[in-house]
Amino acid sequence: MKVVTKITELKQFVQQAKKEQKSIGLVPTMGYLHDGHLTLARTAKANNDVVIMSIFVNPTQFGPNEDFESYPRDLPRDTELAQSAGVDLIFAPSVEEMYPADSGIKLLAGRQATILCGASRPGHFDGVVQVVAKLFHLAEPTRAYFGQKDAQQVAIIETMVRDFNFPLEITTIPIVREEDGLAKSSRNVYLTEQERAEAPAIYVALNLAKAHFLQTKNAGEAIALAEKHIAENTAGRLDYLQLLSYPDLATITARTEKFLLATAVYIGNTRLIDNLIFSLEGE
Predict the structure, then answer these.
(1) Calpha distance 59→225 (Å, rounded)
(2) Which CATH fold would you assign to the domain 2-173?
(3) Which of 128, 140, 154, 195 is buried most, with the most CB atoms less than 10 Å from its CB?
(4) Does the annotation flag 149 for ligand binding?
(5) Is 137 a catalytic residue?
């Protein structure tokens, strides 16, 4: 496995793979890898000839008071884990390498970015589509792999790929969870022992809401039930808890076939997100 930090080095690797007519799987990450990332990498390896993993903490998707500076970073650790999952090349650029100049040209994520996480993180998804579009152009992947935990992000990226005719496939991998149900996240390391004990209540609350909605078709009651469970079982502060259609992230109607039940909760100072995607059959 190779680790490169320069765009020219990445392009050399990509050009050689293309010359040999090899398929490329891309796994974009911000590093501090966990089992969720490694599941993406292993899936990419199973379905492609070579796998590129990007490790880049992208400043354009962090707000002024967010955790860009303190976001966990450990490239030597990530390198070992990525190699164990079959990654062929890690692209770990500096901020200066990815953004050598600011031309003022921007990509806007649109309506889908104004709700859920986007409502409390203005500009976040603009930064996401900016870096993902750059990575798609640089790595020229056959397929790109994302986790369902960031369901809003995946929906926006799928829309960008569709509307701007990116020549690649998006593959979404189900959320990887701890044994007690907590969605795996690089930010889980921020939790204190007490906060970590409370955090699984988020997943329980989502499942209570899903079951209630499938039985009654009453979205308001389902949301209220989940909010009550979180309030009674954690000291957390709810950012949002919503039921929307997926992947368009719109208000549900009688015609909605696929649903996204999504939440963000501050447990202590740590913002945790989780979601369920399901049909009326409960799948």
Answers:
(1) 36
(2) Rossmann fold (3.40.50)
(3) 128
(4) yes
(5) no
